């Protein structure tokens, strides 16, 4: 059976693939622009992963139908879905024993690289497979569509890492060795955090000394007043 000259076994997965790809693009944009905290960002990230799952499954079916011509699409979908799974798992299971041992405080880097990397692969696959159908784009060399999404995506990747990674370095190390390792990993933000904490501790200690001296002076004045009050009684 054929639909618009296309076998039904190919047409149905193709329709699902198109809508799943559109949903992946939209959910990825929404998850990317939402504030990076609990709530909407993780929920939209989960929707992005589910949509990407459909893209991967339908791409597997479609490439299997025309393996000799479309085998590369399967491997691109496999790489992109691997990035998406890794990025989602890095945040979702960051407190698990395995990921804490594997990534430690670097889970946010894995999350950013995985999610943005999967988006780059998604757009690369779309343009490589469909650019010849788009006016003006079909005049560009094929190599352009293999490279351009990565060239555009890398600045966003670096910007996200530089913006969000320092915010994960809030707890201070408990020993000098841990502090040195943390400074090597995170650099200036941790040093600034240490300096601020030490200044606050110094302020608290000075305040405590001031309070103690004030209490001591008040006690001395109280004893002096009591001594003066008892002096007439002794005189009489």
Structure, described:
This protein is an all-alpha fold. It folds into two domains: 2-168; 170-236, no CATH class. It is 81% helix and 2% strand. It is built from eight helices and two strands. It has a two-stranded antiparallel ribbon with strand order 1-2. Strand 1 (2-3) and strand 2 form a beta hairpin. Helix 1 packs antiparallel against helix 2 (40-65). Mean pLDDT is 79; it is low at 168-176, 178-195 and 231-236.
Q: What is the number of E strands?
A: 2
Radius of gyration, taken over Cα atoms and rounded to an integer in Å: 31 Å
Shape: elongated
Order of helices and strands: EEHHHHHHHH
Low-confidence segments = 168-176, 178-195, 231-236
Pick out its properties.
single chain; 236 residues; 2 domains; 8 helices; elongated
Question: How does the SSE layout of this entry go?
Answer:
Layout: E1 2-3, E2 6-7, H1 8-33, H2 40-65, H3 67-92, H4 97-102, H5 107-130, H6 142-164, H7 176-186, H8 188-235
Antiparallel strand pairs: 1-2
Concise summary:
This protein is an all-alpha fold and 236 residues long.
